[in-house]
Specification:
three-stranded antiparallel β-sheet, 38% helix
Length: 427
């Protein structure tokens, strides 16, 4: 039984507890039926356990249906749907995600147990793509919520369900995690050999920490670098402050750094010049201005200038949204900092793009608020230049210090308002 609707409206702690109970019961195998009482209306809302994940055969049957593979003709008069171009020649290979990102609602939408299509189904669809009149030989993506997840995170899940109180990855990967890319490598190789296919790209996000957990992860990384990156590989480290990453459900920053080093070395080994495109989020629950400045300093030190950044906003069904509303971590009920003030959210976002001239005033404001005026100026470590009036005030202070001096007799010499020197004995 969940807390009543009236209770969660009045008490944020009960709201957080209600959310956590729902989160722990969204698995098809281990989840229980839940009920929330509405006292005023004298009724209950009942939540039944989740549907079982699709089997490979069921997924194949869904994707074997004769889809039109384009948008409805009604959109033609509006100029069509431009986004169709990115997905039109992409293959969905899996459903579900055990990544455990707390700002993502996939746990509720598709579950944490992976379902995947057979190689035969995907090869048949690839052959179908080659027969389309506007196909140029390029499969844009082979993936899903996370491209490199092709099987459940451990063999126990199909029998007893996913663990309700443990993450598969995150900052402390489960010892039962079965990280293995061999099936995905085999699939990509087969797709490359389909007649009419010139190149197969992987553009869905990949979990870099999962690659590092695979004892043979370098085999997959080399395959990826040599054949499936279109110049840039999308990854999502999201932040650099470990306590913020813990609230996000993401691995520690040093894990991303290890992957970055390995990726760069793999490119060098194969004579490739390809880059990582990292995604970051500002003002996530737990993130303070100091944390945002730490992220900006990381961009400075790594010469990274992100063109696209994302400010956290609450979306239904996510743990991060529960944190944002309640100010609590529902896993342990500990209070956490929440940046709710619109201006602070603007400042955190501006810090991520501190190099943009239009953000200069916001960056200065953020640094002053955080007591980090050492980062304002022309020094190599500064994030933003001082305003002209600040520079003038600094020069005036410097002039004042040099004009106030002692002569050889120990007298203090300064200038009066008329520019004439006056002498005062030091006391």
């Amino acid at each position: 039984m969940l807390p009543s609707y009236e209770d969660i409206c009045k008490d944020k702690k009960k709201y957080a507890k209600s959310y956590m109970k729902q989160y722990q019961n969204c698995d098809a195998v281990s989840g229980k039926q839940l009920a929330e009482r509405y006292v005023k209306d004298n009724c209950f809302v009942v939540v039944n356990p989740s549907q079982y994940p699709l089997t490979t055969e069921e997924m194949d049957a869904v994707y074997d249906l004769p889809y039109e593979r384009t948008y409805h003709p009604m959109y033609e008069k509006m100029g069509g749907v431009p986004s169709i171009e990115e997905v039109k020649f992409s293959l969905a290979s899996c459903r579900g995600c055990f990544g455990g990102c707390n700002f993502c609602a996939l746990t509720f939408h598709q579950g944490r147990t992976i379902s995947s299509r057979s190689h035969e189904s995907l090869l048949a669809e690839a052959e179908l793509l080659t027969k389309l009149p506007d196909f140029k030989g390029y499969i844009h993506d082979v993936g899903g919520p996370t491209a490199n997840f092709r099987h459940p995170s451990c063999h126990k899940q199909l029998k007893v369900g996913v663990c309700p109180n443990r993450e598969c990855l995150g900052q402390n990967p489960c010892p039962n995690l079965e990280a293995d890319h061999s099936d995905y490598i085999a699939l990509l190789r087969k797709l490359r050999d389909v007649p009419g296919v010139k190149k197969v790209f992987v553009r869905s996000g990949i979990r870099f920490d999962y690659i590092l957990q695979d004892p043979n992860g370098n085999d997959f990384l080399e395959e990826l670098v040599k054949f499936h990156v279109s110049g840039q590989l999308k990854v999502a480290p999201e932040h650099v402050a470990d306590h913020v990453l813990a609230l996000m459900g993401k691995p520690k920053h040093e894990v991303y750094q290890r992957f970055k080093t390995r990726y760069e070395k793999m490119n060098q080994k194969n004579g490739m010049e390809q880059y990582l495109v990292p995604y970051f989020i500002s003002s996530h629950p737990g993130c303070t201005l100091q944390d945002a400045i730490e992220l900006a300093e990381y961009f400075r030190d790594t010469h990274c200038s992100p063109e696209q950044v994302q400010d956290f906003y609450p979306t239904p069904g996510t743990m991060s949204t529960c944190m944002f509303y309640t100010g609590l971590d529902p896993r342990n009920m500990q209070p956490i900092y929440i940046a709710k003030d619109p201006r602070e959210k603007e400042l955190q976002r501006a810090l991520m793009q501190y190099r943009f001239p239009e953000n200069a005033s916001k960056v200065r404001e953020a640094l002053r608020k955080a007591g980090r005026t050492d980062l304002i100026g022309n020094g190599p470590k500064c994030l933003v230049k001082a305003e002209k009036k600040e520079v003038k005030a600094r020069e005036d202070r410097k002039t004042s210090r040099t004009s106030n001096r002692k002569n050889g007799k120990g007298e203090h010499i300064s200038k009066n308002s008329f520019g004439r020197e006056k002498k005062d004995k030091w006391r």
